[in-house]
Design goal:
6-stranded antiparallel β-sheet, 5-stranded antiparallel β-sheet, 17 helices, 21% strand, globular, binds flavin-adenine dinucleotide
Length: 466
């Protein structure tokens, strides 16, 4: 009996996909390098088969069989990851979570909603919005990603500065561990009942278990919204204004600061020559929104920032989920990627200048720019966009790797964090020690060995080889 037949016998034929053509579009996520390899004659192989579970029990049955036979299992949410977290190999099983897509409940009194892990993010938001509520989690990929994927990658939404990142919005997580046991972690608004085990799954990228259900904490839709925009002469000036806003106790749901390159490219009708832009969205009860907008104006104007047209923020709101595909650029010989990092207020300007300088030194660099999109009392993120066109196809991979190295090393040397919200996947594995240190890496490996002694869960992702 083949392994695929065993899966079919355990789960039913309808839940096991082995038709090669049906497996083609499940070969990888959005990681640009794997798309480049596709067109460069090294296409990612299709998996052995895909399993489409309907319940946690189906996931457990699949894990049991994989463990028995030592077959690798790759959880696949909706495939919008950008770090190579889903790159199935021909000998592995892909666990396609998209058929686990039920809304489990909406609890309007306690503002909670439970979803199967494969539930589409935008569809989840639409369902709670129909009750006047919001999850408040708006990754740019909201229409392309699953709620389980949000947990597995520790995602951040565009409104995170006010509403928090996914770890702030999760009430409980249901998961199947590699030994096929089912756990539900989190039951009350807060607990001091030992370590918070939900965090073992958050950011685990399919290497420590399969997330099968998520209960998210909701909000009422805001009563009011207001917008603010300012021109920024030097990046440091905008960072200082943002620091002052947050450390004074204000929390605009959105604070985004574009450098001069991105302001000109993204807001051609609003940006001024050689100036960046700082955009803010204020949401909440009307009185707080008005007070926050006035306080932000006072802080920005006091810091010498000139007011810009709020039409710039309206433009961003209209286009914020527009998703260009790498393939259009690759076809023109341009290799590009986006890389998000974070650092304290003391270090962020150094990260920005040093990463841009090093990117510009990569042969063929045609763009090195950044904006910030998630801010905290202690610091802020940066989201770099690089593009290289080395003019010779054989040099594209090298230029891509050199660009990543430039940002990772500039960030690490300044004491920053190498991954703000896209996760580690394959592209950042070699840099993980910068964040975890050797002790943290050893702890992660100990967890992996304890939970997944046979190493079947998403091999090659997140955890660097020893
Ligand atoms: C255009 C674009 C914009 C983006 N914008 C944002 C953004 O604003 N913020 C942000 O945080 N991210 C963003 N991303 C990245 C991506 O959308 C997120 O990482 C998202 O959370 C991935 O969800 P997914 O369901 O598509 O996961 P997948 O891509 O399918 O998987 C990602 C990783 O999680 C694992 N995984 C998925 N589901 C499960 C599960 N149920 N159990 C265990 N492991 C699982 C996979 O094995 C893989 O390692 C963007 C991506 C694109 C393409």
């Amino acid at each position: 009996m083949t392994f695929v037949s065993k899966l079919e016998a355990a789960l039913g034929k309808a839940q096991v996909v082995s038709d090669p053509s049906a497996l083609q579009d499940r070969r990888h996520d959005y990681w640009v390098l794997s798309h480049f390899d596709d067109i460069d004659g090294r296409p990612a192989p299709a998996p052995l088969c895909a399993v489409r579970p309907r319940h946690a029990e189906d996931v457990a049955a699949t894990l049991r069989l994989c463990a028995q036979e030592g077959i690798g299992l790759v959880p696949f949410g909706l495939g919008s990851g950008v770090c190579g977290g889903v790159l199935a190999a021909s000998e592995r099983v892909l666990l396609d979570m998209s058929a686990m897509n039920a809304l489990r409940f909406i609890d309007e009194k306690n503002l909670l909603a439970g979803f199967d892990a494969g539930h589409n993010g935008l569809a989840a938001e639409d369902k709670v919005a129909a009750r006047g509520l919001t999850i408040g989690h708006w990754p740019q990929s909201i229409a392309l990603s699953s709620v389980g994927g949000w947990i597995a990658t520790r995602a951040s939404g565009q409104l995170s500065t006010g509403y928090g990142n996914i770890e702030d919005l999760v009430h409980s997580v249901e998961a199947v561990l590699p030994d096929a046991s089912v756990v539900t972690l989190g039951r009350a608004p807060r607990a001091a009942a030992g370590p918070d085990l939900r965090h073992i799954l958050m950011g685990s990228e399919g290497t420590l278990g399969v997330v099968t259900g998520v209960t998210l904490s909701l909000r009422r839709q805001p009563e009011a919204r207001a917008l603010s925009a300012y021109h920024v002469r030097a990046v440091e000036e905008g960072f200082e204004a943002q620091r002052e806003i947050l450390q004074s106790g204000w929390a605009p749901v959105v604070l985004r600061q574009y450098d001069a390159v991105e302001a000109k490219r993204g807001f051609p009708d609003h940006a001024r020559e050689n100036k960046g832009l700082l955009l803010a969205v204020h949401e909440g009860p009307r009185t707080r929104v008005d007070a926050e907008q006035a306080a932000v104006a006072q802080i920005c104007e006091g810091a010498g920032l000139a007011a810009a047209l709020v039409a710039a923020v309206e433009r961003w709101l209209e286009r914020r989920n527009h998703v260009p595909h790498w393939k259009d650029y690759l076809a023109q010989g341009v290799m590009l990627d986006t890389v998000e990092v974070s650092a304290s207020w003391s270090a962020i300007a150094r990260v920005y200048h040093e990463a841009v300088r090093r990117l510009q030194e990569v042969p063929g660099c045609v763009n090195a720019s950044a904006h910030s999109s998630h801010a905290y009392r202690s610091g802020i993120n940066l989201y770099f966009t690089f593009a290289v066109a080395p003019g010779d196809k054989t040099k594209m991979r090298g230029a891509y790797e050199a660009s990543w190295r430039a940002i990772m090393e500039a960030t690490a040397e300044a004491g920053g964090g190498i991954a703000h919200h896209h996760g580690i996947g394959r592209v950042r594995r070699a840099y993980l020690h910068h964040d975890l240190g050797s002790g943290g890496l050893a702890l992660l490996r100990t967890l992996k060995r304890a939970l997944d002694p046979k190493g079947i869960m998403n091999p090659g992702v997140l955890i660097p080889d020893a």
